[in-house]
Specification:
Blueprint lengths: L1 E6 L2 E4 L4 E9 L4 E9 L6 E9 L2 E7 L7 E6 L4 E6 L8 E9 L14 E2 L3 E6 L1
Parallel strand pairs: 2-11
Antiparallel strand pairs: 1-3, 3-8, 4-5, 4-9, 5-6, 7-8, 9-10, 9-11
């Protein structure tokens, strides 16, 4: 069983930056995919980025077109923590942000919430002008 806990959300002005963290605990297995999702009020949960891990090594990263070039996903295996660096923030980035874990490879379905096994409680990001 894996537990995830996000932190780092807050309020920021347009053009600003935030760094989100997600600490994982429990048995993740040797091969898994971790991703970041966001959900605005009244909207469906949207996959924005993911990163694959095999035997403790970082693999391929994936990005939604809307955040490509502005967001960077990374992880610190020693600290068992996933990060999301968000730059050049826009008002449309306002949402609850969740980290999630999917057993096995990320694959073509990395953007689908239904494929993930564990979820954090979320951290709120508010971008204002």
């Amino acid at each position: 069983q894996v537990q995830l806990a996000e932190s780092g959300g807050g309020s920021v002005q347009v053009g600003g930056s935030l760094r989100l963290s997600c600490e994982a605990s429990g048995d993740t297995g040797s091969m898994y995919c971790m991703g970041w999702f966001r959900q605005a009020p009244g909207q469906k949960r949207e996959g924005i980025t993911a990163i694959s891990t095999f035997a403790g090594n970082t693999g391929v990263t994936y990005y939604h077109d809307s955040v490509k070039g502005r967001y960077t996903i990374s992880r610190d295996n020693a600290k068992n923590t996933l990060y999301l660096q968000m730059n050049s923030l826009k008002t449309e980035d306002t949402a609850m942000y969740y980290c999630a874990l999917k057993k096995g490879a990320c694959g073509a379905s990395w953007m689908s919430p239904a494929e993930y096994d564990s979820w954090g409680q979320g951290t709120l990001v508010t971008v204002s002008s």
